[in-house]
Amino acid sequence: MKESVIYQDVFQKGERTGEQKEKEPVRFCLRLLNQLFAEIDSEIVERVKVLPVEKL
Questions:
Q1: Tens digit of each residue's pLDDT (9 = 90 or more) over 17-48
Q2: What is the pLDDT of residue 43?
Q3: Which of 19, 22, 40, 55 could cross-link with 51 by S-S, CB 3.0 to 4.6 Å?
Q4: Pairwise CA distance, residues 28 & 48, whole Å
Q5: DSSP character string of 1-56
Q6: Is residue 44 a contact partner of residue 30, using CB atoms and an 8 Å limit?
C-alpha cells in the first residue's frame, strides 16, 4: 500500500500541510515585529525563525 501512487500523493500533501502549520507562528511573530518596529534586521529574522514555538 505504501508504494501506491495515491498513498504517496496523500502522504506528501499531509507533510506539506504540516510544514505550513509549523511555520504559521513564525510568520505571525514576524508580522507583529514588522508592525511594531517597521523594518527588522535580517539577523533578527533568522534568529526568530529558529526559535521553538514555546519561545515565540
A1: 655 455 688 888 888 888 998 888 889 889 98
A2: 92
A3: 55
A4: 11
A5: -TTSHHHHHHHHHHHHHHHHHHHHHHHHHHHHHHHHHSS--HHHHHHHHTS-TTT-
A6: no
